[in-house]
Amino acid sequence: MMKMKYTINCFLPYAGHKETSETAALLRESDCVARIFVMHNGSSEASIPNGCEAMPVKSIESTATIKAIAERADCDYVLLHTAPTALRPELHAIERMARLAAESGAGMAYADHYNVTTDGNRTNVPAIDYQQGSLRDDFDFGTMLLFDSRALVKAVGKMTAEYDMAGLYDLRLKLSQFAPIVHISEYLYSDIETDTRLSGERQFDYVNPGNRDRQIEMEAVCTQHLKAIGGYLAPSFKTVDLGISGFECEASVIIPVRNRLRTIREAVASALSQQCDFKFNVIVIDNHSTDGTTEAIDEYAHDSRLVHIIPGRDDLGIGGCWNTAICDPRCGKFAVQLDSDDIYADNHTLAKIVTTFYEQNCAMVIGSYTLTDFNRNPIPPGIIDHREWTPDNGRNNALRINGLGAPRAFFTPIAREIKFPNTSYGEDYAMGLNISRHYHIGRIWQSIYLCRRWEGNTDAALSIDRINANNLYKDHLRTWELQARMAMNKNQQQ
Question: 444-481 burial, b for 16+ CB within 10 Å, e for fewer?
Answer without folding.
Answer: beebbbbbbbeeebeeeebeeeebbebbebbbebbbeb
